[in-house]
Amino acid sequence: MLTLFVYGTLKRGYRNHQAFCRGFVEFREATVRGRLYEGPGYPILKVPEADILAQGTTDPLADAATQARLSNGVQARLQQPPEGTTGETWDTVYGELFTFEDPQTCLPPIDHLEGFRPGSRCLYQRVLVPASVEGARQLAWVYVVEKLGISRRRITSGRWPE
Known about the structure:
Blueprint: E1 2-6, H1 17-20, E2 24-38, E3 43-46, E4 54-55, H2 60-73, H3 75-78, E5 91-100, H4 103-113, E6 125-133, E7 136-144
Antiparallel strand pairs: 1-5, 2-3, 2-5, 4-6, 6-7
């Protein structure tokens, strides 16, 4: 099993959901800490460095195993979000959690869509972060940017589209 947090065109009812996320076995609304920015027809997410627990790889089964291993080992840490060490404030970003039973089939097409290519230059990184679901916290993979590049409008509501 692998859990993925989506906040843009992969959400239910948006243009990429049907083609890429129809193989999910569980869906829940969720939030993560971060900052959401308007991209050219899609949102861009930045998360606090302190929230990143693992980096995604080209091996979906290894990433699912990493998620399971870290989820079991950090339950106490997941109860409270980490405090920012630089005094930065972060927004609540709203999205959806999809759990996939077969990450080896479902994840590579989504990685390709997001332009995620470990070891190469790419817009998005797939990282493992704590997500909040109905008051509880759990780990989920999410696509984020390291650097915004050009100036983007921040979506302070944390919801795309605004």
